[in-house]
């Protein structure tokens, strides 16, 4: 890469997909990653590897009628119309081609998830890999990146700033990256463009307290390198920011194990109760908003109650299997035994189990408005104590349809791109607008789009 690469990618999560796409389009690429253990420590590797793809071939084969229009409508409905409409439309349109590219070019063994549907998706739209865990996605993509002759991987090294040209009266143009090594030395690397794929600011407690006070004291279950680097770098260039109060939370992290129990337990018919043994809402609205709601309950904790059928239905998830293997599930033959095993008030718990079963059978409306019940829970029961968590932030640098970072006047900053948590996403404000998969979609979709835009710009400049 004499003279520097065409593209420097900061972050080896969704940025790996951007690197592969850029190399496929003929660009020379350098991926800079700060963590030596990124294959187990970034947000993609911690995810359930759900990729929304509207209109994919797997949907067509399964008879699922979907389209970018329908996906965009679902985003608007879940966010109350407060998402970035342009970006939502852009990502809805690229979602189908993206999942097919991930399978056909990047080689991920994707398939459509049809055994249950996540809150907010009106049809089966999420695609995943065997085991439904992001670590296998990162392992696979990292191997592809290391094998590609057009990509260099610099690990561990942190992109701490970008270098620019331009001055008074001239547009600022990004011309390279400033990289810091573990020994404290720094190097300027010239480049045609820089893609910030450094995630958000979930690991910076001060920023979380400033922008996300409702979840600031909850467990942080995300990458430790998510420290707001993109906000700092982009802010230094006058970039616009938005949706800094948006985040993905989760209400189902196993207490004592730190593993993800998973919301499939709820979708398949489980319930959540607080320490008083009472349900406190319609659990099927979404796991993200339930994080803050659980955090507000006594002790900031609760219990998910499931049964043997749900237990078996959740086995496809590696996270759930890890939870089971940790030994934190308790079992009981009836409601009284479950109360004894959990320490919950027996009368309240029994009433909730009976009321939920009656609502599931259609005998009476649920007092919390829950209408989705696959079936009534049946003894023997299992339960697991859960705590709320912040997974990742959903606000950041504003980008256009090419993933180019823009200024407050919506003018692109030449040479600077952002993807994933480094960019403002499509979850609107707060936690309630998060749709499952809409963390990975901006991470991979914007990186994919940035690669295409940089390739077109490079070709035009060379010609």
TrEMBL record:
Signal peptide: none annotated. Its EC number is 1.3.5.4. The keyword Flavoprotein applies. Its cofactor is FAD. It comes from the Bacteria. Residues 6-429 form the FAD-dependent oxidoreductase 2 FAD-binding domain. PANTHER family: 3-OXOSTEROID 1-DEHYDROGENASE (PTHR43400:SF10), FUMARATE REDUCTASE (PTHR43400). This is Fumarate reductase flavoprotein subunit.
